[in-house]
Amino acid sequence: MTALRHVADGLACGDLLHLGREESVAVYLVETTDGVAVVDPGPSTCRDALRLALRDFGAAPDDLRHVLLTHIHLDHAGVTGTLAREFPSLRVHVHARGAPHLVDPSRLLESARRIYGHDMERLWGAFEAVEPGQLVVLQGSEQLSIGDRSLRVAYTPGHAWHHVSYLDESTGMAFVGDVAGEGSQHGTPALPVAPPPDIDLEAWKPSLDRIAAWGPEALLVTHFGPVRHVVAHLDTMWDRLISWSLAVRASLASGDDDESRADSFAEAEFARIASSLTVEQAAHVDRDAIRSSWFGLARYWRKKAVA
Ligand SMILES: [Zn+2]
Residue 264: inside a domain, yes or no? Predict the structure, then answer.
């Protein structure tokens, strides 16, 4: 079984098989005349899978020259510091709001520990710091040239404050991390990814509009794989995000505690989504991710109430 699939000219999607799960976390590999660029290299627990993906892509280990981060959540960026240490000439592209947390990950890890507790090591593994000299700090409207590849950068907050997206101009592929939600290869619908702590609905919609304005051939989402029906996906994801956010706001008025509110929300949404799917398709819907979106959206509403 190969965990690597062709997406476009010189561009492939690797399955990092996170915790042994198929089609959970994707990595994108891009061939350039200046070595290989990896978009969101994944967590440290998938270091071996990343190595295999690079090998299957035909790359020697030190062909890895560029890491392009959409954002620094552990499932996307956890192994970055390790790679930067192993390959001192590696350049790491990241938004200005994320860069300080790569140089000093202590606050990022502290906030992740609040969510994952003792499970941190098993899920994500080490998160090493990156030397400032290896960073390419982005604002979000750059035009990047990496070898013969030309990539446009857009600032795309909403899911995370420091989220950017990249458009590969030669193939029309858009690397959109988590801002376009989850997509699947099995005909399941577009699902938002809205975990704590940065969810911002006002910032989110303009980000989707920026991506749509590129007119991309496909959205390369991290969870999981290329999505070719771009406009329908973005519309469905946004509509569902709004309906989730209203359901979460309504649930805050119930007498339950947060854990039970999140459980009821995940249960109800999963049932609603699954009702229009086959059993095989429903198996690809991640109930835990829906549950964690309850917490992200609840935090969004509570912050708003205080402001
Ligand atoms: Zn994320």
Answer: no
